[in-house]
Structure to design on (140 residues):
């Protein structure tokens, strides 16, 4: 497995419930290293740009509203096969389908308020990291 970087968000439903440490522990226990991290509060417009691929979906407005509702934690996770490893640790998008012990099974409230986001491919990881972090912030 190659060393990879992936982009992660701890979403407003999780920051509101003070779950940042518990979620970070799951990343670290899985061998993912948090090499960059910051807490920010997105505007709805900034959330809209990030999720532009979903612009035609019926839930897009609700999704952007939610992502701008409270602070989020943006992260870069590094590790062997980090993109697929992170998706395993997160569990399925809908917490009702998420495997036992995954972040979404343990913490997510619904398919919309599902605690975490993770990149789905190397190209999207690079694009998402660049949207939130400068090269100077990626110290490895
Ligand atoms: P995420 O991995 O961040 O990528 C897109 C997000 O859209 C997804 O997690 C969910 O939070 C959200 N989403 C997907 N399907 C639905 C849905 N049916 N209703 C509301 N939100 C959804």
């Amino acid at each position: 497995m190659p060393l990879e970087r992936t982009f992660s968000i701890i979403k407003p439903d999780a920051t509101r419930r003070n779950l940042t440490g518990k979620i970070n522990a799951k990343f670290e226990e899985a061998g993912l290293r948090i090499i960059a991290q910051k807490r920010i509060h997105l505007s709805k417009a900034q959330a809209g740009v990030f999720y532009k691929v979903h612009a035609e979906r019926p839930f897009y407005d609700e999704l952007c509203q939610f992502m701008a509702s409270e602070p989020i934690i943006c992260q870069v996770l590094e590790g062997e096969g980090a993109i697929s490893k992170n998706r395993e640790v997160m569990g399925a998008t809908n917490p009702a389908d998420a495997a036992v012990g995954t972040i979404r099974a343990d913490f997510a409230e619904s398919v919309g308020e599902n605690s975490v986001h993770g990149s789905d491919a190397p190209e999207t990881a690079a694009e998402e990291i660049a949207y939130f972090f400068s090269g100077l912030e990626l110290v490895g």
